Structure formats: structure tokens, C-alpha cells
Amino acid sequence: MVALLSDKKEFILAAVKEMYTEVAQHPERTFHFPTGRSACLFVGYPGDQLDAVPATAVESFAGVGYPFRSAAIRKNDVVLDIGSGSGTDALIASGLVGSSGKVYGLDMTAAMLEKLRANIAKTGARNVEVLEGNAEAIPLPSATVDVVTSNGVLNLVPDKPKAFAEIFRVLKPGGRVQIADIVVGRPISEECRSNPQLWAECVVGASVEDQYLGMLANAGLDDTTVLRRFDYFSGSSSESTRRVAASFAAHTIEFSMSKA
Fold this sequence. Notes:
This protein is of the alpha/beta class. 38% of the residues lie in helices and 21% in strands. It has a single domain, classed as Rossmann fold, CATH 3.40.50.
């Protein structure tokens, strides 16, 4: 569990919003983490799946893995994408659920939400709805979602137990979770965690893997299947980021769970 002073949380969220506003508005820039189509291919997305999504969605991709490896999403499902960004995963999910399904794209960054709406309009995807908010207070009724998907977002959430309880709440009984996220192999000091800017670096907000999965289990999710672990930060253009990530044994984990 992450211990935070209440006044730090506001600044952490502001730092995260600032970082991803840059990714949305200036996708041509080089960031300390992989972005865009090259990042999608690096973390495992098939090229033909990307071709079905507008380039303006893929250009601002900042995920850390390939959660669709779980094949959790089915025709007619209702899906919630937590941290949908410019829409790569939400629009892929839109195609998987079909016209009788529904996808909610949840994000807290205004620039990403604007870009998501534009990309939905480009595709004409009538089954995708944009939600403004964050994982700690999901603006949906309880037991309304078949699948929750998220990619590289929950490590940025200050109150993870609250977010995981919200995921459990909105899932229907028998609902499924597919997640790709950053975890660490060694604990991160509270001094590092209290630095808002370091949260946006995608490392210090991460939990130790066993603790992360344990928090989800405590929220009521079970049937954990780890699909892949890999060194996401090897793709960083920043030597400093690679060094910091290595010092904490930071890596991506892709996994699925379910609500009994």
C-alpha cells in the first residue's frame, strides 16, 4: 500500500496530467518511455490490429504491455478501459465487442479525452462512450461491466486499494479483468514516493508484484493468471530512466483475473 500525505496526492495527479497532456498534444516528441506505433509493436500489438485504429490514436499510445493477450473480451461484452488515453485499446475493444457491445473509455486528462472523442468520430464507433474521471471513483453503477481493461495506468494511481475496490464494484459477477502494468521487484522508499514528478516517470508509483496482486485479491478478485513479464524499460530512450527502473527491478506484468 502506498502511504501518502493528503497534500501530495493533488500534486501527483497534476504531474501525471501534465505528462500525458504532452503525449496527447506532442506525439512527435521523444519521451522517457516508449510511445506511438513503435511502442505498440515493442510491447506486442499485432500490426494488423493497429491498422484498424486511427493513426492519431496510436501516435499517443503510452501503454506498457499487451493486455489483449488474455482474450478476455468477447462479443456483446460491456468493457471499461481505465486510462483510455487517445483510444488505442478502447477502439480495439470496440471491434471485439461488436455493435451489440459497449466500451467505456475512462481518462482524467483533458487533452487525451479530446483526442479520444476525435478518434471515436473518425472511426464512427457508436459503441464507445467517453467518461471523464479516475480509477479511484469510477463514474459507473455497480455490476455493470463484463471486462475491465487497463494498460500502464494503475501504477500511477495513488490509492490503489480504492481503485481496485472500484474495479470489483463495477464488474458483474463472473466479470473479467485484463491488465498490463508496471510492478517492481524491490520496495520503493517513501521519500521517492512522495516526489510528485517521479510518479509521472512510471516507476515510483509501482508496487512490489506480490503486493500488487495481493491488493487485487483483497478487493475480491481471484483466478489470477500471469500471462507475461518483460523488461518494458529496456525500450526507454533515457539512460537515467533505464538505470532507475533497473535499480528497483521494475518490469511489466500482463495478467488476467475474475470476479467470482
